[in-house]
Amino acid sequence: MAGTTVADGGLVERAFTAAAAGLGVEPGSARHTEHLAHVRATMGESKISVFRRLFGDEARARRANAAFQEAYAGLVEGGLVTPVPGARGAIEELAGSGRTVVLATGFARVTQDAVLDALGWRDLVPLTLCPADAGGRGRPFPDMVLEAFVRTQAAEDVRQVAVAGDTSYDVLSGVRAGAGVVAGVRTGAHADPAFRAAGATHVLDSVADLPALLTGAR
């Protein structure tokens, strides 16, 4: 969601900084710079997985994740998230053409719901998924893509599934799931070289271009 259909203006990094400070990682320190680089590189991955690698033991990772969720939710409630231009229209166009749209995220459910509520998107799609809904591993594993395929029963073959996302982890999860279309979008964390290296079938300027891609107009 963030970076693909939702513009958050760098709130992930701001929330991470707040969470890390609570565990003794001072903003501006060499450790903070190193951690922030890792957060940027792993955008799209389950946040608890990121914190496990950064902070080592499970208890510290969970403390960091809880602090991140609280900080991000506070920023969201402050009105600091907006739809990516054209994203809602693209979702509605896809749904209107008979396709089933699922919104997936690396955030925890409480954070995802805060974003959906802030945008008024609770009823926009029939299914939203976070890592906990699909076994807990999140991206770059294929689990959420396959969970969407199984739960919606909207396709007979996983090759009929299209995946779009702004990170290499979005792309890799779609490739690993066997999706027929796996598109990187240029509105978020990663760029064309990362998308191509992960196996993207297409690269789009925005998710707003996805309907045209799927109808063969581009």
TrEMBL record:
Coiled coil: none annotated. Gene3D superfamilies: HAD superfamily/HAD-like. It comes from the Bacteria. GO terms for cellular component: cytosol. InterPro entries: HAD-like_hydrolase_sf, HAD-like_sf, HAD_sf. One of its GO terms (molecular function) is phosphoglycolate phosphatase activity. It holds the Pfam family Hydrolase. GO terms for biological process: DNA repair. This is Haloacid dehalogenase.
